């Protein structure tokens, strides 16, 4: 293994340990014990960078761009057929068909038009992908996601009108603010919407997110190092 490969794998182990420790400090605990799932965010990194993590046993990955995912994951999934690939980026309705072919979970459902298209395309494909509703938890203009006060209504609509399997909520809190209150807000919304999963927490704040009840943390930089863009 190259130096870069060894580093990603050793960081994976470090993060798993930190997740284990954060888990013991869950403050927003309610219900069954949570064992948070690590989603390795491999955007901007190549198949060569991803393979060492697959070899080390990691199976859950996240990508935010459909085209980029199509360029590396079909081959990787052929070799590692138990991978779960999460779409964590914005989804245009004209990409829905491609996404259903390649991905296993869609975390970025944020509008009714998309829900409608997902229903139609999943019926065509004979597949049912679990989905999360993405919440614009800090109500930031430049961010994707449904407004907090419209979240419960969208979840119900996705479930009742489009029969989508909405398993949870996802958010990205404002970059330069303390994330804890935003994570707490997402947890409370999920409880009210009666959905189980909370995808929240990235490289710099995943331990806080876990303490606030995250079931999924999405980590890129802390594993792979800095990306050139985005
Ligand atoms: C890039 C990205 C991440 C990972 O961010 P890091 O800070 O590199 O860990 C997580 N979630 C989403 C939606 C992303 O786009």
What ions, cofactors and ligands are bound? Answer: pyridoxal-5'-phosphate
Helix content: 40-55%
Q: Which CATH architecture?
A: Alpha-Beta Barrel
Number of domains: 1
Record field, number of beta strands: 8
Unreliable residue stretches: none
Question: DSSP helix count?
Answer: 9
The CATH superfamily is Alanine racemase
Work out the strand percent.
15-25%
**CA-based gyration radius:** 17 Å
Summed over residues and divided by their number, the pLDDT gives a mean of 94
Choose one word for the global shape: globular
| CATH-defined fold name | TIM Barrel
End-to-end separation in angstroms reads 28 Å
Main structural class: alpha/beta
Task: Spell out the helices and strands N to C.
Answer: HEHEHEHEHEHEHEHEH
The neighbouring-strand order within the major sheet is 7-6-5-4-3-2-1-8
Summarize it.
The chain is α/β, with parallel strands linked by helices and 230 residues long. The chain has helices at residues 3-23, 47-55, 66-79, 96-102, 112-125, 151-160, 180-193, 206-211, 221-224, and strands at residues 37-41, 60-63, 84-87, 105-109, 131-135, 166-171, 197-199, 216-219. It is globular.
Explain this structure:
By secondary structure, the chain is an alpha/beta fold. It has one domain: TIM Barrel, CATH 3.20.20.10. It is 43% helix and 16% strand. The protein contains 9 helices and 8 strands. The chain has helices at 3-23, 47-55, 66-79, 96-102, 112-125, 151-160, 180-193, 206-211, 221-224; strands spanning 37-41, 60-63, 84-87, 105-109, 131-135, 166-171, 197-199, 216-219. Strands 7-6-5-4-3-2-1-8 form an 8-stranded parallel β-sheet. Strand 4, helix 5 and strand 5 (131-135) form a beta-alpha-beta unit. The radius of gyration is 17 Å and the shape is globular. The relative contact order is 0.16. The structure holds pyridoxal-5'-phosphate (PLP). Pyridoxal-5'-phosphate is lined by residues 41, 43, 64, 88-89, 172, 202-203, 218-222.
């Amino acid at each position: 293994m190259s130096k870069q490969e060894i580093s990603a794998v050793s960081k994976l182990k470090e993060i798993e340990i930190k997740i284990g420790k954060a888990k013991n400090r869950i403050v927003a605990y309610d219900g069954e014990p949570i064992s948070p799932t690590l989603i390795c965010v491999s955007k901007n990194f190549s198949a060569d960078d991803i393979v060492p993590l697959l070899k080390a046993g990691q199976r859950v990955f996240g990508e935010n761009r459909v085209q980029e995912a199509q360029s590396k994951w079909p081959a990787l999934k052929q070799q590692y057929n138990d991978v779960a690939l999460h779409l964590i980026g914005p989804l245009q309705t004209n990409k829905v068909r491609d996404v259903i072919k390649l991905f296993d979970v869609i975390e970025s459902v944020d509008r009714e038009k998309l829900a409608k298209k997902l229903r139609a395309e999943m019926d065509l494909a004979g597949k049912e992908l679990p989905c999360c509703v993405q919440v614009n938890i800090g109500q930031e203009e430049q961010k994707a996601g449904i407004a907090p006060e419209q979240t419960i209504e969208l979840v119900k609509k996705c479930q009742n009108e489009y029969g989508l399997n909405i398993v949870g909520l996802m958010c990205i809190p404002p970059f330069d603010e303390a994330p804890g209150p935003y994570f707490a807000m997402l947890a409370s919304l999920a409880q009210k919407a009666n959905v189980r999963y909370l995808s929240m927490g990235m490289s710099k704040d995943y331990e806080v997110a876990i303490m606030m009840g995250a079931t999924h943390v999405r980590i890129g930089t802390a594993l792979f190092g800095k990306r050139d863009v985005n």
